[in-house]
Amino acid sequence: MRQMLLKALASGLIMSLFPFAAISAPAGPSHADSLLRLLSKTHDAVGRERIYVQLADLSGDSLELAAPYWDAALAEARKSGDLYGCKDALDFLVRKFAGRDSQRAEKYIALADSILPGPRHALFRSSLYAYYIWKLMNDNNAVETVKHELDRLKTKIHNELSPEERAEGYEVLFDGRSLHKWTGNTVNYVPLDGTIDVTASYGGSGNLYTVKEYGDFDLRFEFRFLRRGVNNGIGIRTPMGVDAAYHGMEIQILDHDAPIYKNLRIYQQHGSVYGIIPAQEHVVFGDLGTWNTMEIHAVGDRITVTVNGRVILDGDIRQACKGHNVSEDGSKKNPYTVDGKNHPGLFNASGHIGLLGHGAGIKFRNIRIKELPAAKTKK
């Protein structure tokens, strides 16, 4: 019904601008030429969307011809906020590409999740996904298709934004399948069953870094230990290829109750800003394999760490070392830091986020971040 209305509106618009076109130009190349000329004179998103829909309809069953026009119609519908137009375009694209190009079909399904979130559009999103699955089952082995899609759906559930996070402007850093937003050691950090599985050993070359640099942010993720005594860390505001604990900051990730850490120093506890601010509450982890939530909130000099819903660290890095991240006399010993060492990168304004491999036995998932306005720092 909507497409018929759009055709009527577009036809009326053409007749007003080209009064003889409707009489002398049958549907076909000349009619498409008229629409393309009209398109060059139309600058509002609504009008351009209608013309692209007309051009797509004129393309008939040719996916090669119609798909670019539907892509363009979708782009204009998004500009104008026409959600029904978005649905029309996505419906065509998913149905046509399902069974022909799975990657393209999945791209449009993911796009529907992004631009049509929430319960209001849940039925439409489900219909796209259901048709895609039906088409795969029809064209391939049904049992294998169902198993594959269930695994993919499980991965997706744990690595996508909640509606609230999407509205607040968070970004997914790991989608459960690829490391395209990361760089560095992609040999010992690998996507596995919707997680980043870590087998890296200690050292700068063994780390995985975000491609992008971040200054002030809110970082959320989940992790779990697979063996006792796991030692890891999250580097923040750090350059690549260095020891983040000193040339940036390291937020400690540690199974600190393991027997091998009976002589652990206070600034090495889980959640500490390593060597600068000890965690103010001791985390008690559950059984091995239990997923834990963690949030790192970094605004200027203020660092807040929350684990499993409890704030375990809230402090000012500049106040913690009285402004002396390096020793005053240039020596290697610094009386102002709790570990007695220099931290030349402590006050970096921005840098990469790093997964700091200190050995195997840990997995990460559901990593997302929200960039925050830069805070004014007192020096």
Q: What's a concise summary of this model?
A:
The chain is α+β, with helices and mostly antiparallel strands.
Structure commentary:
This protein has 379 residues and is α+β, with helices and mostly antiparallel strands. The protein folds into 2 domains: 2-157, Serine Threonine Protein Phosphatase 5, Tetratricopeptide repeat (Alpha Horseshoe), CATH 1.25.40; 166-371, Jelly Rolls. It contains 12 helices and 13 strands. The strands form 2 sheets. Strands 1, 3, 4, 6, 9, 10, 11 and 13 form an 8-stranded antiparallel sheet that branches. Strands 2-5-12-7-8 form a 5-stranded antiparallel sheet. Helix 6 (83-97) packs parallel to helix 8. The protein is elongated, with a radius of gyration of 27 Å. It starts with a helix and ends in an 8-residue tail after the last strand. The model is unreliable at 1-27 (pLDDT under 50).
Helix and strand arrangement:
Elements: H1 2-17, H2 21-24, H3 29-41, H4 45-58, H5 63-80, H6 83-97, H7 102-115, H8 122-139, H9 142-157, H10 163-168, E1 171-172, E2 182-184, E3 189-192, E4 195-198, E5 208-210, E6 217-225, E7 231-238, H11 244-247, E8 249-254, E9 292-299, E10 302-307, E11 310-316, H12 317-320, E12 352-357, E13 362-371
Antiparallel strand pairs: 1-13, 2-5, 3-4, 4-13, 5-12, 6-9, 6-13, 7-8, 7-12, 9-10, 10-11
Helix pairs in contact: 1-4, 3-4, 4-5, 5-6, 6-7, 6-8, 7-8, 8-9
